[in-house]
Amino acid sequence: MAALRLLSVWTLLLTVTVCDGWLFDGFAARRHSESDEVALWPLPQKFQTSVDAFRLSSASFQIVHAKESTAGPSCSLLQNAFRRYYSYIFGNGRKHGKNLENVFDADLAELQVQITSADPECDGYPSLKSDESYQLEVNQPTAVLKAASVWGALRGLETFSQLVYEDDYGGTSISDFPRFAHRGILLDSSRHYLPLKVILANLEAMAMNKFNVFHWHIVDDQSFPFQSRTFPDLSHKGAYHPYTHVYTPADVKMVIEFARMRGIRVLAEFDSPGHTFSWGKGQTGLLTPCFSGSSPSGTFGPVNPILNSTYDFMTRFFKEVSTVFPDAYIHLGGDEVDFSCWKSNPDIQKFMDQQGFVVCLQLKGDTVVEVWMNNNVDKELQNVTGSGFTAILSAPWYLDYISYGQDWKKYYTVEPLNFEGWCKKLVIGGEACLWGEYVDATNLTPRLWPRASAVGERLWSDENVKDVGSAYDRLVKHRCRMVRRGIPAEPLYIGFCPHEYSGN
Amino acid sequence: MPQQMSQSTDRYPINPQLLAFSYARDSAAQSGCSVLDAAFERYFNLIFPDFVGGTGLSNIWSEPKPFTVSVKVKNGECDGFPDEGSNESYNLSVSAGQAVLKAESVWGALRGLESFSQLVYQDDYNLYFVNKTEIEDFPRFQFRGLLLDTSRHYLPMPAILKTLDAMAYSKFNVFHWHIVDDPSFPYQSRNYPDLSSKGAFHPMTHIYTQSDVKRVIYHARLRGIRVVPEFDSPGHTQSWGKGQPDLLTSCYKGKVPSGTFGPVNPTLSSTYQFLNGLFKEVTSVFPDSYLHLGGDEVDFTCWRSNPNVQAFMAKMGFGSDYTKLESYYMENIVNITAALNKTSIVWQDVFDYRERIPMDTVLEIWKGVPADYRAELGRITLAGYRVLLSAPWYINHISYGQDWRNAYTVQPQNFSGTEQQKKLVIGGEVCMWGEYVDATNLTPRLWPRASAAAERLWSDEEKTSSVDKAFPRLEDFRCTLIRRGIQAEPLFVGHCKHEYSGL
User: Fold this and answer.
1) Where are the alpha helices (DSSP H) in A210-271?
2) How many CA atoms lie within 13 A of B284 on its CB side?
């Protein structure tokens, strides 16, 4: 009976292959064997496999809302996700020659997505507190994905799409959640303007790797591409070009919504008082005039901290920023402030005397500190968390520092909690940073991926998932998967993907 | 940077509607010359990237003035392939309403057209101009090559063709195709089909068919680029053994074969029969007069372990000096190549092992820091051989920062030797080995860093000694590359008027 069925299936598949048919593209999980490698990335917290093999048919397989789900067809976030993941699974006319020999136990008719919380958060924004956990059961005839909110559902859909692609996997039971809540990527759109297309493509790649924060280092010394409604001169005078090298309010909205649909928070950084040279072009009087002896030298330094006008401007500016960017957090920078200009300015000297300053930084209790300097990182983490502040780690993950060879390994083997301290749970996560001095749309994507994927697994998966050898095998396949989905992730080492990137 | 160039601030408007390329009446090459006919069309589109064609409403601010680019070629040979003796010199004179390009051969005309295309610029209103210019130009080195490795990673055809386009923009004239190696054998051979069907990463999707190879050769020819294939042996041949059993040496563990294989087996006549057959085919497929035979990094361990090889060593009186065995092999294949009427290029290892090779063999220096390769340049040229330099141009080695400067400041003739010796340095090559490179990252990793080496190989060293002066020119050139669809990465912070719009 099974043999007969197999024969008819074979004939059907063969016929359709000849006719370049798309109707009955069959996808199946081969009978699971001990040696089959799981190529999920990042690796889920808990998963079990069975020997059953399932076949999916692109004609009839569907991703649907479970009857008991608190989300339904009105949830556009999930509707979009269903379509996106369907095309990841069945898109690009993938060949499946090797599956013809497989023995199928049954048809997998659908994946049911069930949101369990009373509030699915369909129209909300992801936050640091979002519940990204999910359970995935793949048994016939339906697979069920359960999550408390849509954010967990998105993570589960990604995992499901990785199971099916692999074809090597059969019945599965997965229970997953992230180790760290803040898993970010920093992109720098000031040193080089980044066209929207490359930002959106990388948000797509982030979702494939379960990253959930886009740290948008949007302005800096070199250029100010953020088009402000309140202060239009900032970009008009500060961008590389006032029309072609700016992010309009519509552009920013698009990025935020595109990210939201993928469960990614957009954390904007308006770095000051240093790194603000471009701000002074459109906002005269904002930056400190440096002095050469007793007269102004003509150059400018950090933001002038002694003027009321500075704080008036900042209040109004950040008011706009906080309405534009819905995330609860904003990154204020505060790095690398060079004091020499301040020191040279007589007004500032006077102010310092008047105030009787001992420079002391007082942070509010809920401030998050990003640790980026790569010396004595463990001491820094110890101090930051010991003082009661939450911390994000990026120091070991400056991906703009390229070198010859497989440097993903050193990113993978970082252990964020490897320091002496009692308050390690104050480390809420980390970020892979791709600073823009030598990076723009021509080389960003291959430079970021799959190296950032190594960081992605370190931040999501269990700390004991650290064997570099088996990570290599999975990451090679995950990288080919990204390439197949249109992301030009560069190779780890010698080898090939069944479908190479054909480039532009 | 051309050898001689002078420009004035006088500038002439060019209206895309009214620009025409023409053959001078006394040009030996005329309409019907495939290389130049194709070049005229290609360069028109490169010069006017905004121009979509159609009615002339684009330029209503200036009077319609025709602009003629007249091309005169002394040697009208149009249907051949560029080769080692090709004359790439040209003169270009730009004045009101015309540019006069004179060249010895069509290959020089191509170089001149490229330079002309770089002289045309747009002002802030997007109108096209060219300044009054006089150029007399020729390359310092006649062999300016770029190596791609399609064995460590398969490179799809579009990636290779695009690289050839970009090479032409930088006046590279040799595509060194390191087509096969240990990991894979993508070259689909007519006579030995198993080589690729068993040795490629995938026998259907990761191969270069005969028509693919032809396509690459013709695409290169139209750009004045030679295609020099490399079939590296006796090392770097793991993939060859998949489709050609008994070609590689069986390694032994004590008295029994271990199951692994080493370099090509130099003791069997079947080896040389096969290589003769393969090289016969290869030399008929690739029209260039040179063939790169490799000869690098041969590991002797496997040979040493094999009792038959040991017996052969004894028979030949080589003792235990395996460099003699390697020499024996290389000398044989260099002779096979010579009998096929081709000249060999080999890596420096062949010279270092004192192998007996014909005096016209070219050695390629790939090892070491400047002190090392300068010494090697001295040694090889002292022995009277021609030499190519690639050691300082392994741009697959990436690092943080502006490493283009290292490529730019290489001095290929800075070694102790006579003028005669220095003349034996016929050029150099930029190498993009493929361990960490495929179509996802090839183009930004190649450009514009390879262009820095290109200037070093074409231009006068004294005139281009300042890295700081080169920086703004290379920045502009990089933006030009992007405009032309080449995904060249940034040198440093900044922007281009037209950014790259892809991924």
Assistant:
1) 233-238, 249-260
2) 9
How many angstroms away from the CA of B396 is the closest CA of chain A? 8
What are the tokens at B92? 């270009």
Report the chain A residue with the minimal C-alpha distance to residue B495. A192
Q: Do B490 and A504 touch (CB under 8 A)?
A: no
Which chain B residues are Cβ-neighbours of A445 within 8 angstroms?
440, 503
Six-digit token pair at B430?
């930029």
Contact A504 B503 (CB under 8 A): yes
* CB of A146 closer than 8 Å to CB of A173: no
A260: closest CA among A156, A184, A151?
A151
Residue A433: closest CA among A227, A185, A196, A190: A185
Mean pLDDT of B326-338: 96
Whether residue B307 is predicted with pLDDT greater than 60 in this model: the reply is yes
pLDDT tens for residues A373-423?
Answer: 988 999 999 999 999 999 999 999 999 999 999 999 999 999 999 999 989
Answer yes or no: do B396 and A223 touch at CB < 8 A.
no
* CB A320, CB A229: distance < 8 Å: yes
- Non-local (6+) Cβ contacts of B169 within 8 A are B114, B451, B480, B481, B484, B486
Q: Which of A192, A499, A504 comes nearest B502 by C-beta?
A: A504
**Shortest CA distance to B19 belongs to which of B2, B45, B37?**
B45
Residues of A in contact with B166 (CB under 8 A): none
Is B161's Cβ below 8 Å from some Cβ in A?
A: no
Q: Which residue, A443, A439, A453, A440, is CA-closest to A481?
A: A453
Which of A404, A409, A478, A496 is the best residue to mutate to test the B interface, defined by the most B CB atoms within 10 Å of its own CB? A496
**Shortest CA distance from A194: residue in chain B:** B499
Q: Is the separation of the CB atoms in B221 and B105 below 8 Å?
A: no
- What are the residue numbers of the active site of A? 336
Amino acid letter for position B447 = W
The pLDDT tens digits for A78-106 are 999 999 999 998 875 444 433 444 445 56
- DSSP type of residue A37: P
CA-nearest of A37, A43, A38 to A453 is: A43
Q: Largest Cα–Cα distance of chain B, in whole Å?
A: 88
Partner-chain residue, chosen from A403, A490, A494, that has the shortest CB–CB distance to B152: A494
Per the DSSP assignment, residues forming a β-bridge with A295 are: A292
Side-chain-side CA neighbours of B137 within 13 Å: the count stands at 28
Q: Given B134, B297, B429, B455, which residue is catalytic?
A: B297
CB pairs under 8 A between A and B: 148
In three-state form (DSSP H/G/I as H, E/B as E, the rest C), the secondary structure along A117-165 is CCCCCCCCCCCCCCCCCEEEEECCCEEEEEECCHHHHHHHHHHHHHHHH
Across the interface, of B159, B396, B497, the residue whose CB is closest to A503 is B159
The A182-188 sheet, strands edge to edge: A331-333, A265-272, A213-217, A182-188, A427-434, A390-393, A368-371
Q: Is the CB of B435 less than 8 angstroms away from the CB of A197?
A: no
Q: Which among B442, B492, B501 is the nearest to A438, CB-wise? A: B492
Is the previous residue joined to B448 through a cis bond, with omega within 30 degrees of 0?
A: yes
Distance between CA atoms of residues B364 and B387, nearest Å = 6
Q: Is the pLDDT of residue A15 over 80?
A: no
- Model confidence at A108, pLDDT cuts 50, 70, 90, reads confident
DSSP A169-213: --SEEEEE--S-SEEEEEEESSSS---HHHHHHHHHHHHHTT--E
The ipTM (two decimal places) reads 0.91
**Whole-angstrom distance, CA of residue A395 vs CA of residue A403:** 17
Helices marked H in A261-307: 279-282
